[in-house]
Design brief:
The chain has 1018 residues and is mainly α. It is built from 38 helices and ten strands. The strands form four sheets. The chain has a four-stranded antiparallel beta sheet with strand order 7-9-8-10. A hairpin with a 2-residue loop joins strand 5 and strand 6. Helix 15 crosses helix 27 and helix 21 packs antiparallel against helix 22. The radius of gyration is 41 Å and the shape is extended. The N terminus and C terminus are likely disordered.
């Protein structure tokens, strides 16, 4: 702006000199003054913010004062943005761009700006990379253009996914000597080479550490560097001679501590987070929530420690028990006892006897660590009753002589409910520790999520409260679109080939149309008819749920799907249900025929729901015909009725059709909208959950995949061939079961005592540290693995899903409080469908007034005159249809104008200027609207028309036509009156003739003259 201002200042004195020297040049100097002013305004416009710059400014201002270096810089940014937006709006008005055409222009400028910004970022190089490559070095420029290209990122993402799949395939049971696994090893080696090349190119492009944007200055790049480094260190590729001679990677067996580095290969899928924006956003939210979670963890740990110390004081050493309940203390628990179940057989015990064993349950309070783990399991409400019952069976007052102490308090056999007050300990812990303390995670997550949303995803600091509400309404408009209304049948032509039959068919189709479009509101949208059909669908589902399977008699047998098996199930109740099902099939067939007759094939099959209905009805009818006709005939058609009975189950999907009617129920519609709106955010969290479960699954296979699961029954019997870490599918399901909290601690305690499978043991017998019960990882670390997974996934990620759902409920409540809410937009769409049944999203200009009058007047207008005045106050634009020249108004233009009028009406005229620049200051919202209505780009190429001028011209033309039509009608009536008077032989028109209306005048003239009279409508 400074050079432009200087140029303007320089031209000022020159104009004064010319005016003094030659006053006759006054007109020329005025033109020069206007030209200079236009140049000055042009310079100011060139200094305004582009939509891309506004987007970056909004992101910076979303952080509030923290996004700027000085305290007053935020207010200065607001002032600059508002001034720039107003100037851009004036420029769009000068270019005759209003409404949708302005939105398209804003989106095009935004895309162009972002494209330039992306190109600038790809070309940006800072510092001297590795001390060898300056920014202009050809090699560095080539590397930058390669690694920053979207295709390169997509290729690396595909390689990461392929590498992750190979990790899932690599398990303890794999035989590395087979050809298939050698090929997999080669592919895995190629993946490491690709990742190494990627890392090298990025280091050359960005520098290693000392450049401003060096490779190791980004945490995600550090993760990539560690993963690649671990991949080389733990590599095991005998075909290249890289196994170090011991099968443990490049470093061989001489470095035993690095053998576990193969486990860190499981971190390889984490590289997908950097390349997937949704998951990266969730991870950033988790990092933001980490400080709050750490504080809550301290509170929970303190609370658990207090109860753990109390539990140690109450129950330490008292959970020990003998498997023979007849003994009273530990010194009696030896030898064999009679046991019909054979729970603990021993070679020294005869048949029917078991060996007595004095054992301690895994969930105990013998020390503080065990007590903390036990309380955490109790807090998960999983198998906590076993611990409480064990505490209730303790004998705290028992003493005996042992080790020279006459009051030794341990070694007593528990008795059922001997210490029943111990249940209060667990009840209090669950009430306080679970329902209050543990739910602090939920409250903190929701609170932090709302705080981050207010700082980043909520109202921009550059927008006022009214602009934020207006943006929310525009977002509703982008989500809700006008529906298509089936058109009535076309009236037959007068000269049809078979006129009476065509008219009769038309009359029948109109009756069907009125029936299927029956609506108690009078809008003929078929809501009431669809509601009745939905009720019939629900009744059909209830009837289908009433079938009872008749038990086969003892010793009986029928061929599967045979005639005898079918006849055995034909009870009287099932036959009555079959009759009801046939009745429902007839009703749905009648519905299908009515809609086909009313709408025709083309309109019927446009709707996907109608296509589903057609498939279900046809399959039901075919099943009925096969079941009732073909199977009972003697033609011997080889069709099995059970095949078509499967089609009957498919009719259950008709319940999906009733979901459309749920939108008519306000409360259910809000719940459905909440869930649908939360799906994108929850999908990001679910993706991260899957990634974490995948990583822990691979780690679990490396840690516990070599345990013995065949023929072994551990403490709880839950670690077996169905739940183990030997295979990826079983391991994934074990962790998924842990997410739901189903007996995960039973699996954990079984793994702690699991034995090693010698055939799968990765450690060789020549190793000096070999242990037959050690499979590579100390099993005492199992609680750390399971508790860490439980805290991170169940306690953190799942609470984030809760926060998302609660946030969506808050959004729905905020939508209801908007000046123009979702209910208003839905009503507008229903009325729009009356005037635009084909959903072309455009209506003729003269129908705008009709549309406004169709709205609920207390909501939009108080009276019809107010609606007539409001049309000229609205900022509408129209375009000429190139096919017929009719002026058309688009749905987006109309709704935006109506919404603006409502905001100004409810909030005052002073908000009008702020609303006019909202779309310029919210380029993301503009982009959403254009994406929702892509054909707006075609309208932008048409010649725009001024709606107010065209509407005024239309009204003036209507008044002119009305005036001249009345004059012509008066002249025509006067000629008829004179004709009738002359026919009667009267010299002048009598008062009787003047008092006649148009019909009476025509009838009198016909009776008098005896011939046809001209057509005249009063």
């Amino acid at each position: 702006p400074a050079p432009a201002a200087g140029a303007a200042a320089a031209t000022g004195p020159a104009k004064k000199v010319v005016r003094m020297e030659d006053p006759s040049h006054h007109h020329r100097h005025e033109s020069s003054e206007r030209l200079t002013g236009n140049k000055r305004r042009g310079a100011n416009r060139r200094a305004t913010f582009t939509p891309a710059q506004l987007a970056r400014m909004a992101e910076k201002a979303a952080k509030g004062e923290a996004g700027f270096s000085e305290p007053g810089e935020l207010e200065e940014a607001k002032r600059k943005v508002r001034s720039s937006s107003q100037e851009r709006r004036e420029l769009l008005i000068e270019q005759n761009k209003h409404g949708s055409t302005a939105l398209v222009s804003i989106q095009q400028e935004l895309k162009a700006g972002r494209k330039k910004e992306a190109a600038r970022v790809r070309r940006r190089l800072l510092g001297v990379s590795l001390g060898l490559f300056p920014p202009a070095h050809p090699l560095r420029v080539k590397c930058a253009s390669g690694v920053r290209h979207p295709v390169f990122e997509a290729l690396i993402l595909a390689c990461i996914i392929l590498s992750s799949i190979l990790l899932a395939c690599d398990g303890p049971t794999n035989d590395s000597t087979t050809a298939a696994w050698k090929a997999i090893a080669i592919v895995d080696f190629v993946m490491i080479l690709v990742f190494t090349v990627e890392m090298t190119l990025k280091i050359v492009t960005q520098g290693f550490f000392f450049c401003p944007d060096a490779y190791l200055r980004d945490w995600w790049n550090i993760l990539d560097f560690v993963v690649v480094l671990v991949g080389w260190v733990s590599s095991d590729y005998p075909f290249l001679g890289l196994d170090g001679g011991g099968g443990s990677g490049l470093l061989g067996t001489s470095v035993g501590g690095l053998r576990t580095l193969r486990t860190f290969r499981a971190l390889r899928p984490l590289r997908t987070i950097q390349r997937m924006p949704g998951m990266r956003l969730v991870v950033m939210v988790l990092f933001e929530c980490a400080p709050v979670f750490i504080n809550i963890c301290f509170i929970v740990f303190f609370f658990f420690t207090v109860f753990a110390i109390m539990g140690v004081q109450f129950f330490a050493g008292r959970f020990w028990t003998c498997n023979d309940t007849s003994v009273h203390r530990v010194d009696q628990c030896w030898g064999c006892f009679e046991d019909e179940e054979g729970s603990n057989p021993h070679p020294n015990c005869p048949d029917g006897y078991s060996k007595r064993v004095w054992r301690n349950p895994k969930m105990n309070f013998d020390n503080v660590l065990n007590a903390l783990l036990t309380l955490y399991e109790v807090a998960g409400l999983e198998m906590w009753l076993d611990v409480m019952y064990a505490a209730m069976d303790t004998r705290p007052g028992y003493v005996r002589d042992a080790h020279g102490d006459s009051e030794f308090p341990y070694g007593a056999q528990p008795r059922p409910e001997h210490n029943w007050p111990a249940a209060l300990f667990f009840v209090i812990f669950i009430l306080v520790g679970v329902f209050i303390v543990m739910n602090l995670f939920v409250g903190a997550t929701v609170d932090k999520f709302n705080e981050l949303k207010a700082a980043n995803g909520g109202k921009s600091m550059l927008q006022t409260e009214e602009q934020a509400q207006y943006s929310e309404t525009m977002a509703i408009m982008a989500r809700l679109r006008p529906n298509m209304k089936p058109l009535p049948p076309a009236r037959p032509r007068k000269k049809a080939l078979c006129g009476p039959c065509a008219r009769m068919w038309y009359w029948f189709r109109m009756k069907c149309y009125k029936l299927v479009m029956w609506d108690v509101s009078g809008k003929e949208q078929g809501k009431s008819f669809d509601m009745v059909i939905s009720c019939v669908v629900m009744c059909n589902i209830v009837v289908m749920a009433c079938y009872l399977w008749r038990r086969i008699p003892h010793g009986g047998a029928f061929p599967v799907g045979g005639k005898l098996a079918i006849e055995h199930q034909q009870t009287s109740s099932n036959e009555r249900l079959e009759m009801l099902n046939d009745l429902f099939t007839a009703i749905f067939t009648l519905e299908l025929l009515l809609k086909l007759c009313a709408w025709g094939f083309k309109q019927y099959f446009i709707d996907y729901w109608n296509q589903l209905d057609f498939f279900l009805v046809v399959s039901s009818v075919l099943g009925y015909l096969v079941d009732r006709v073909l199977t009972s005939s003697d033609f011997g058609v080889p069709l099995n009725p059970s095949v078509f009975r499967v089609m009957r189950v498919a009719r259950m999907t008709r319940a999906l059709k009733s979901l459309r009617m749920f939108r008519r129920i306000k409360g259910v519609a809000k719940l459905a909208d909440t869930l649908i709106s939360a799906v994108p955010a929850m999908s990001n969290v679910a993706s991260l959950c899957f990634l974490v479960i995948f990583i822990f699954t691979v780690m679990g296979m490396e840690f516990y995949g070599f345990d013995q699961i065949e023929g072994e029954e551990y403490v709880n019997g839950m670690y077996n061939r169905h739940a183990n870490f030997r295979y990826f599918g079983d391991a994934f399901m074990v962790l998924f079961r842990q997410v739901t909290g189903e007996a995960w601690n039973g699996v954990m305690h079984d793994i702690r005592v699991a034995k090693c499978n010698p055939q799968l043991n990765p450690l060789e017998t020549t190793d000096k540290d070999y242990d037959e019960n050690y499979c590579g990882t100390p099993h005492q670390s199992v609680p750390c693995f399971f508790v860490l997974f439980q805290v991170f996934v169940t306690g953190l990620l799942f609470e984030l899903i809760t926060a998302i759902v609660l946030d969506e409920f808050g959004k729905q409540k905020a939508y209801d409080e908007l000046p123009v809410n979702e209910e208003f937009v839905a009503e507008f769409n229903d009325n729009w469908a009356q005037l635009d049944p084909k959903a072309t999203q455009s209506i003729p200009q003269h129908k705008v007034m009709t549309l406004l009058l169709m709205m609920d007047r207390p909501v939009l207008f108080e009276s019809k005159p107010e609606a007539a005045q409001a049309v000229f106050k609205m900022e509408l634009s129209c375009t000429k249809n190139p096919s017929d020249g009719v002026l058309m108004v688009h749905y987006v233009d109309t709704l935006v104008a109506v919404v603006r009028y409502q905001f100004v009406k409810k909030l005052g005229p002073e908000v009008g200027d702020e609303l006019d620049v909202t779309m310029i200051e919210s380029p993301e919202l503009t982009n959403r609207i254009i994406d929702a209505y892509p054909h707006l780009k075609k309208i932008e190429k048409m010649e725009p028309k001024d709606f107010k001028q065209e509407m005024a011209a239309t009204k003036m033309q209507g008044l002119w036509n009305k005036k001249h039509a009345g004059k012509r009608m008066a002249e025509h009536r006067e000629s008829l009156e004179k004709e009738l008077a002359a026919a009667r032989g009267e010299a002048t028109v009598s008062a009787e003739i003047k008092a006649m209306n148009g019909k009476e005048l025509n009838d009198a003239l016909r009776q008098t003259t005896g011939g046809p009279s001209p057509n005249f409508e009063p």
